[in-house]
Write a structure and sequence with these properties.
alpha/beta
Length: 208
């Protein structure tokens, strides 16, 4: 359901507007979205990265885009969904099974992050990366494992969205790949705790 991706992206646009960065937005997006009239074509003109979600196929395109940003010193506000796919009940169960086999902490409300793309981004943008904004979204009226599409956002039954944002300066990020792997896993454990608190109290705030 591509509309779920569009719904989440629209909410990030609201955040970018508040930060005065709407004109700098770029996305990591699924390759199929480029065929969607309006939205897909617009992202193409914004120099977004269309990915097949296969590192071998996407690596050169990603690194070339980063090099272009570095060379031109172009301002950017890059959106990356580290989970690599949208949340569904089936994918959530597959993610939990992966965590159990890999002896990783069990994540109930989010999917296990894919660290390769995050590492490539941090390394490819070294020296021009200002900060990482960790964004967590929670939707009132939708149970765990269900993400609303664009129609639910515009016409209901969803009427309120909660957004939690935490800024991490680039100089605070770990230096090695192994340390960054653990860093992003820690952030997703925090997201899981945030969403657990949301489902308990309907407030997206860090547990005390």
């Amino acid at each position: 359901d591509w509309s779920s991706d569009v719904c989440s992206s629209d909410l990030i646009v609201v955040l970018a507007k508040k930060l005065g960065r709407t004109q700098d937005l770029k996305w990591f997006v699924k390759d199929v979205i480029k065929w969607i009239p309006g939205i897909g074509w617009g992202m193409l003109f914004l120099d977004c990265l269309y990915l097949k979600r296969n590192w071998t196929a996407d690596k050169e395109k990603i690194l070339a885009t980063f090099e272009r940003l570095r060379k031109n010193r172009s301002p950017f506000f890059l959106l990356s969904y580290v989970e690599g796919t949208r949340l569904t009940l089936k994918k959530r169960e597959r993610s939990r099974e992966f965590c159990r086999k890999a002896a990783l902490p069990d994540l109930i409300h989010v999917l296990s992050p894919r660290t390769r793309g995050f590492n490539a981004t941090v390394e490819g943008l070294a020296g021009i990366l200002d900060a990482v904004y960790d964004v967590t979204l929670a939707f009132e009226g939708f149970p765990t494992g269900e993400v609303p599409g664009l129609g639910a956002l515009l016409w209901g039954p969803m009427h309120r969205v909660h957004i939690h944002v935490k800024r991490h300066g680039a100089d605070s990020l770990p230096e090695t790949k192994e340390q960054r792997n653990q860093w992003i896993l820690d952030r997703f454990q925090e997201k899981d705790a945030l969403l657990a608190e949301f489902y308990r109290s309907r407030t997206l705030r860090e547990p005390k």
